[in-house]
Amino acid sequence: MTSRKVYPKRITTLSGVSDFRLKHKAKKNVSGIDAFITNNIKQGNGDPTDAYGQIEFGSGTANTAKYVKVSNTTRVEIIHQLITKHWNLKTPNLIISVTGGAKNFTLRTRLKEVFRRSLIKASETTGAWITTGGTRTGVMKHVGKAVEQYAAVKDDEKRVVTIGVAPWGVIHKRNVLLNHQRADQMIPKVYDAEEGFEGSGTLLDHNHSHFILVDNGMEDDRDGASAIYGSEIELRTNLEGYLGGLQTSRRVNVLIVCVIVQGGPGSLKTVVGSIQHETPVVIVEGSGGWADVLANASSMNQKQMNRDTLAEMINECGMDVNEEKLDDWTEMVKECISRKDLLTVFSLDPTDLSRDLDIAILEALLKATSDDADVAQSQQQLKLAIAWDRSDIAQSLILTDDACIPKKTIAKLFYEVLEGNKHEFCKVFLNFGVDLKQYFTVKDLHSLYKSASKNLVFYKKLCKRNFSLQGVGELLLEYLGKSYISVYKKRRPDSPKYCAILDVEYEEGKFVPEINEQKIEGWSYKCKLDDPYREIFQWAILFNYREIAMHVFEYMFGSTQAAIMASRMLKVLASQMGRDQETKHQMEADADEYEMLATGIFSKCYLENQIKSFTFLIARLPKWGSYTCLHVAIEANDKHFVSCPGVQNFFDEIWTSKLSDNHWLHIIAAGLFPPLIFTTIRYDETDEERGAAEDHAPAVANGMEMQPTPRVEDEEYIVGFKTFNNTDPELAEMSDYTLMQKLVIFYDAPIVTFWLNVVFFLFYLGLFAYVVLSGFQLTVVSVSAWEYLLLAWTSTFLLEEFREFINQEARYFSEKFQIHMKEAWNIMDLTSLVLFYIGFGLRYDIRYLFEALTLYAIAFMVQCMRLVHIFAVHPVLGPKIIMVGKMLKDLLFFLFILIVFLLAYGIASQALLYPSETNFTDILVGVIYRPYWQIYGELFLEEINFNPNAGDFACNDTDPGLPRCPRTTPVVPIMSALYLLFANVLLLNLLIAMFSYTFDKIQSQNKEIWMFQRYHLITDYYFRPPFVPPFIILSHLYLFLGFLYRKIISRMELDDPFRRTLKTNLDEEDWKALRQWEHWHAKEFVREKQKDDENKVDHQLSRINLRMDSITTTLEDLENRMRASSHAKLNALINKKFNQLERLVGGGSVSHAKNPPKAPVHVKARCRTYPNSKQKKVTVPDDKVLWKVEWKDYKPPSYTDPIVAANPVWADEDLEKYDPKSRPALPYNKFDQKEKVLRRSHTGTYLVVDGIPRNPKGRTGIEGRGLLGRYGPNHAADPVVTRWKRNKAGDVMKTNDKPVLEFVAILRADTGEWAIPGGMVEPGEAVSQTLQREFGEEALDVDGVDMDEQRNIQLLFKSGGLELFRGYCDDARNTDNAWIETVACNFHDEVGDAFKHVEFSPREGEARAVSWIEVSHKLKLFASHHDYLKKAADLHNAYF
Fold first, then answer.
1. How does pLDDT run across 977-995, given as a tens digit for each residue?
2. For residues 1145 and 1267, what is the distance between their CA atoms, to the nearest angstrom?
3. Considering the chain, what is the average pLDDT of its residues?
4. φ/ψ bin of 94: left (φ > 0), alpha (ψ from -120 to 50), beta (otherwise)
5. What is this structure's pTM?
6. Helix ranges, 609-713 (H)
7. Residue 834: what pLDDT?
8. In the chain, how long is the greatest CA-to-CA distance?
9. Which end of the chain is more exposed for a tag (fewer CB within 10 A), N or C?
């Protein structure tokens, strides 16, 4: 007996809800509201109200609204209870009370658009209620139109709450709203809101969501409208006042603002009442009526306001003056302007397109609650802005430069913003400078994970682990692999890993938490996080808070590693999304974006310094699971990152090691014949030669302003890189390689290992082929020596396969197995080895000799396929091999389709040709074998068209030695023809089309895919022993003995899963310096990316459209005013408006000069008198500076200072004393190996005339060397040390909304000018050494600085700095034959700790004074130092 499901019967209501329980619940709610209204709400005559329920507006609208008729004496507490409990409205954050003209009036086009749009924006962003008069006239109609046009949500539950408080007695067709029976309130009342009706009364506006209809017992057709209008004002005022005394769910007071548009004397009374109740008022200027009168009066004081002035203002606004009420109006206006803190005037400004009414409304509220002397008020304002979700208000009005909100409060609010996923506020707080390091604790991090989004799979899995940090680590272990080392594991408090996420320095036995402290998973509640930005970024990525993650990313250190990890985590999370395809695609897109960011930042770092970039790429990341950037990028399948030039060049460095460009034949020959290593193999230049060339070479990187700056500190990274690269660090100090060193370097290079493995693998295949073809006897069991050699050789392959398996980048055996078997080539290797050993085992049984030979042959075929993988490293063959692999996948899908046709035809033809066949082999031949070969042209026609008389097909039904004869049937040939038509024509062409599509699709990506897969081949040979099979057995023996020694004798734990990965370990100081260096470049890249985004066509078009809209509306305003203005006023107005339009479109005045004047060339170098002498110069006009300009009369004096002429060690020999033909030739435009001096110019190749160089910038008015020691360029270095200027509270000071920089300046002893400390590069000295030395000599007396402070300063200089300038320096000491060129680098102390306790003390004779000076355009500095500071300010987006 089968069970049958019984489904409940569907009950469909009028609203489309198919559930009886919903209908029952609705009836229960209606019953509750009916009882509440009957018992509590009365109408004007004291009886229970007879009008309440729901309105359905007709006339083509689908709007509905809830309404109730109440007495004008009804208590506001009851109305509030009705609104919140029975109408289910939540308490608002803000009430916007709109008042004004009750009669229809026209607003200017632009003002009408701004009013409607920004009113709804203010309501939707702040969660505000809008209260009006509720009728379809005057300002109420404009509010209704605003809801109709701009409200984002139209459904009843989430629509903008617009409450109309209207007098009952003047409502047109009010009888429709009455409930004649008790059950009528359940039936919606149809109310036709037609314009132009005949009769008294006014219509309800159909765009309002709720109506409170106030009944004072009078009706317009009986008592007159004048007795009814205004009867609702008192109840509305009391209701708004009551709501203003409540608090929201966030414990923020509900605020009220009154907005007046147009209006008459009644609106003036409303404004006065608001002022008396301390309610801020926003006046919409330009709307006409009393709004314009109050706007004009707001700029006056009480003494200036009198009866005559007010009368004149009323007349100017086009209204009539009532002499009887003028005195009262004057007093009311005076009362209004006496509280200007409560008045805010909103006026349209065509040049300011960003200021809307919503801004004015919120400004009015903040102004009304502001008190400069009260910090609590600022905190309250910020909380209001957060409750309103208006980050723009917080940024422009609250979190200003002079904001005095405590840092702890800022951090606490920032935490609330994170919990609420208010990403715009997150950006505002980060820009303001929230101190996460000081106030973000383990408790806060734990709470973030508990309060995150509940919709994601990660939240559900974390919920099962009680939202513990350890649970987060376990999930990351599950997502990122078992080799991930979580920092959230439970640790002993006295272990260093316990402090991994904390802001404490571990010292053995020193860090012990307090016993009575409240703890989370062993960590103290109060423990501060070491890197809170990383923790928040990881939290945001895991819970898909994409905007927050991106904002935090811009401020965190280690941007490249964070972006790579984000890409990896997002791809894993996307794979867990299941049916939520939208979120999955969004996560994948975000992963691609982070990959692009990582690529851009790393490429920028690579252009600056290759060695540091390579080190950062393979540095171990303890906070990210002890992975490396490269490892994570490979795991995340980040092809774009791996294929970028920086990573590929790193692969090249690993691949070739210390070898230069050598032909592969030379490598093979030298590998086979070692003496050739010393004669034919070329090696890279030694580090001493390379360092000198790189340190003094001009840097050009695609025209970028940020140029590579070589550093002497790179030597530390170089040594670390060499250690990683299997090279003895001591070799870095050698000037040349010895014979033994060359031998070691050669055989240790992966490229040599590769080619030798290829050669010996070909030898192996040759031996294998010989055994299969000639060395295998099928008659006797005889194993030759060649076959035993083949067995031994193959066994070394097995051992190597085992070594690769053991050294997989995983901790556990199961994970190693999964990783190893993911690679198809490993499966092929194991298959060939298994086949070979089975075949060799069968070799000793004479019965299975042929089967053994068969297995040998198949194993040989599989081994030959290995050559395809070997040559995947080739830049031409590699991409083609990848393309073949992709096409094989297409072939598998094609075979699935082909099998369907093949089986259909094969079974049918076999059944018809050989009915009742019982031999299984014959059935398989007929079903599969014959149809398959028919595709290739073997048609089997003699069998299909069998003719027993022809004798073409030998068969016999009685002879068991011959095949069975087929039946003769005409159906099979027809079926065969159709089958071949589909298989040969349709399916094969389909396969060709699939291959073509795959080819076109991969053609643009195959290079990138090849670059990505190149990693595995390079690492394979990088970690492979240098001995090749079969000699590799020696390496295996050595490794095995080493394992036994470490495990048994030394008892070392081999738990590092990454001991065979490309990685390097840095000490803490080097790692901090490297992160700081990368952080600077990351900030620069993000800034450049933002500028590029702003300059994109879409962004430009949106700005142009916005401006054109403003121009159009402004012209419409002009047209409207033309009809109402006199001719004289019109001309003035037109001139004013068109001036505004010109500024708007042009963005300022436009210069019409065709050829703007060029800046003079090296002005300071052409000063009248040479420094420190009385030698006068020839005056060189601007148009005669360049050498290409002919000047026959130019005969400058020659001057060389006596100090220079004395020929000290730092100066050249005087060449001018020689005859031009016999002058010694100096190596101009080269590096002088003899003097260890760079004579190349940063500006390019300079001219040399008669053995004397010429100034590349032109004439200076004097020849010789002056005070300069070298002919040609005299290289200098200028360190620009900066920090942020801070107030006493430690906050960064700002000017014009930009942070202010300070720099270390010296007062020069020779010229008396303020300057950047700097000096000349000494012979054999690197530029980076000069930067640090000159700063110490001129600005810092090291003797007075303790060791800790010296270490901080050294760490700052160790970061490498950012290059600001490299080139010609306009200096008064320059001459026609000698000039100064400099490299200026910025060393920025972001936190301000490096020089916090350092007192500057210049050394005697170097400078008169040293001081921190604010960076500003007003400074007058020595030489070109002003330009360097300008670039530093631009680099940090600081004020200048």
1. 898 888 888 888 888 888 8
2. 53
3. 79
4. beta
5. 0.67
6. 610-618, 629-635, 639-642, 645-656, 664-672, 677-680, 687-696
7. 93
8. 137
9. N
